[in-house]
């Protein structure tokens, strides 16, 4: 419990939490203890805890999510979009640890829009993977990627084995691939997206669609990606 | 009033409105008549009008904005981001008529962030213009652009006279400028942005910041732009 009675109690608690965050005890994206837990830990009432948390929120050190609690605010991850967009490289370069969590990998017939973008016949088989990309423990993107199955024999298995798209493509003979086009708009998070990305329903998302091609210019991936608007900044340098 | 009694009334009204939209009588972004007006025009009750409007909304021909009415849905405007980003060219190329409405043009001292991006000393004078960009009558962007006043003598007057940034820069001796960098995130529309862009408060916006440089690589503009997420798709081709 704070002992210096000249400093208001809430301020001592705010300083204590600020120190724990600075020391890395709570990392960007981490949930802080609940008001009840903090009140018990510091031996104060919840009103005082709320003052301390409000102070951290005003100072842009934490943010609250309705019904979910208070979280350490992460600086937006810079995500370069260029000729070669590589998730693992991008996140590593921003000083964070990249992981991917696949929700599903399925093979099915492509629809007319996928066929046009991947230069396939409608109904040709495609591998569709969906999942979440994380930087440290924080979800920074939700993706749905579509790959031409006949051009990439064994791709579904390779993707399940490697998790890295670059390595899975390599296993199927694609030694390099480049971004042919990127299209960007914004959309409000659905309930499913909000749950997967740990954000509020309706929160603004950057919605990107992109086509990657091999060294012959043949499409090898059509990707849809949803980035939480306050966690990721896409950067483009000419 | 529709006379073919085999077609449900609401469907005749929906077809009538669909025809008027197809004929260009109501253009993308236009507000359709109110339920009361349509009920009076077609001699039916408001329930029937509501059925007709729901049909247009389901068919993605119109959309309703809470408290504001029903509007003809516009296909998103494609907005290419590349080496040379020109608002008038971009909107004209998408088959629409570009206009800009300036809300303010002021000269003031720049802050530390503007100084860094424009390669100025903090406190150097900058011209800051804010306004709305429209495609046909529909707001497609809200902007705040910052220009180095000392590098561009007479720029504030030129901008007020020309409205086109390209022409105003030309008048100050900048015959060409190119995009050096673009950064993109998403944000929820504030009340002010919502009113200016005629969208709902909290609606998702693409938020772009960019730096344009002259042929010597010297910054001539730092721009912040907010695009309604469902009206504009930014496109990037490698």
Automatic annotation (TrEMBL), chains A, B:
GO terms for molecular function: DNA binding; DNA-binding transcription factor activity. It comes from the Bacteria. Keywords: DNA-binding, Transcription, Transcription regulation. One of its GO terms (biological process) is negative regulation of DNA-templated transcription. The keyword Transcription regulation applies. It holds the Pfam family GntR. The keyword Transcription regulation applies. SUPFAM superfamilies: Chorismate lyase-like, Winged helix' DNA-binding domain. Residues 7-75 form the HTH gntR-type domain. InterPro entries: Bact_HTH_transcr_reg, Chorismate_lyase_/UTRA_dom_sf, CP_lyase_PhnF, Tscrpt_reg_HTH_GntR, UTRA, WH-like_DNA-bd_sf, WH_DNA-bd_sf. SMART domains: HTH_GNTR, UTRA. NCBIfam families: C_P_lyase_phnF (TIGR02325). This is GntR family transcriptional regulator, phosphonate transport system regulatory protein. The lineage of its organism: Bacteria, Pseudomonadati, Pseudomonadota, Alphaproteobacteria, Rhodobacterales.
């Amino acid at each position: 419990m704070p002992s210096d009675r000249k400093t208001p109690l809430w301020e001592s608690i705010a300083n204590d939490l600020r120190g724990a965050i600075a020391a890395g005890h709570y990392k960007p994206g981490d949930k802080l203890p609940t008001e009840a837990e903090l009140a018990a830990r510091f031996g104060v009432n919840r009103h005082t805890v709320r003052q301390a948390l409000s102070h951290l929120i005003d100072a842009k050190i934490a943010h609250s999510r309705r019904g979910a609690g208070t979280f350490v605010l992460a600086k937006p991850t810079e995500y370069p979009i260029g000729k070669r967009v590589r998730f693992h490289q991008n996140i590593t370069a921003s000083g964070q640890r990249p992981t991917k969590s696949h929700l599903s990998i399925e093979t099915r017939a492509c629809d007319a829009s996928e066929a046009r973008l991947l230069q396939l016949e409608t109904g040709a088989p495609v591998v569709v993977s969906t999942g979440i990309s994380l930087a440290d423990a924080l979800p920074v993107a939700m993706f749905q990627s579509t790959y031409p199955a006949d051009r990439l024999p064994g791709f579904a298995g390779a993707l399940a084995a490697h998790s890295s798209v670059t390595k899975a493509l390599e296993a199927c003979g694609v030694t390099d691939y480049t971004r042919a086009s990127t299209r960007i708009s914004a959309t409000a998070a659905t309930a499913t997206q909000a749950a997967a990305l740990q954000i509020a329903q309706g929160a603004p998302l950057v919605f990107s669609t992109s086509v990657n091609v091999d060294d012959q210019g043949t499409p090898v991936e059509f990707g849809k990606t949803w980035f939480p608007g306050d966690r990721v900044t896409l950067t483009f340098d000419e």
